[in-house]
Specification:
heterodimer, A: mainly beta, five-stranded antiparallel sheet, B: 116 residues, mainly beta, four-stranded antiparallel sheet, 11 strands
């Protein structure tokens, strides 16, 4: 059974810092991995989708990498801003259709 | 264009009541998913539809949970005889095509269910 973990559980940084969020998964047989952002009381906003054949994806200040063989992904956020404060979730998709989610990392960026 | 919508956004039920939660996927999306998200946790898969066919219901926690998508568009998740442990946010997601695991999922805002 696929299990997804995320480290750290919570992170607080001053504005302007670069930061890395980590995601690990136990079964490397995945189709893709998606990073989401969730604001309090809101649904999930997709940030980046990485297919299993890809090593990384970039969107603006965000960069996500995937090392399928080691079961790891990282989300890099450059020059963090207070508006980046949210919970960040990673999810992997295996041979089934559904995603398996990690518990999330709660990020606070202090002005 | 319009995204995934869910209604109601908030629902309070007394223990033992039945509830129905609605999901309107993005128009034309073939696949539809329901997830349950407990406070402080990541979402957990409940069930998956491809058009009107329910292809996977392995995540439904008990036979009190029932989902349908009779015309292959709108879906309803029904919970009978609600219990306090059913309190959670219920998220719906849709995906453009079926039979492919390569597609992105688009999520609705969720319905927050509180069972008293």
């Amino acid at each position: 059974k696929q299990e997804v973990t995320q480290i750290p559980a919570a992170l607080s940084v001053p504005e302007g810092e670069n930061l890395v969020l980590n995601c690990s998964f136990t079964d490397s047989a995945i189709y893709n991995l998606q990073w989401f952002r969730q604001d309090p009381g809101k649904g999930l906003t997709s940030l980046l989708l990485i297919q299993s054949s890809q090593r990384e994806q970039t969107s603006g200040r965000l960069n996500a990498s995937l090392d399928k063989s080691s079961g790891r992904s990282t989300l890099y956020i450059a020059a963090s801003q207070p508006g980046d404060s949210a919970t960040y979730l990673c999810a992997v998709r295996g041979y089934g259709q559904n995603f398996v989610f990690g518990p999330g990392t709660r990020l606070s960026v202090l002005p | 264009g319009a995204g995934v919508s869910q209604s109601p956004r908030y629902k309070v039920a007394k223990r033992g009541q039945d509830v129905a939660l609605r999901c309107d996927p993005i128009s034309g999306h073939v696949s539809l998913f329901w997830y349950q998200q407990a406070l402080g946790q990541g979402p957990e898969f409940l069930t998956y539809f491809q058009n009107e066919a329910q292809l996977d219901k392995s995540g439904l926690p008990s036979d009190r949970f029932f989902a349908e998508r009779p015309e292959g568009s709108v879906s309803t998740l029904k919970i009978q005889r609600t219990q306090q442990e059913d309190s959670a946010v219920y998220l719906c997601a849709s995906s453009p095509t079926g039979g492919s695991s390569y597609n992105e999922q688009f999520f609705g805002p969720g319905t927050r269910l509180t069972v008293l």
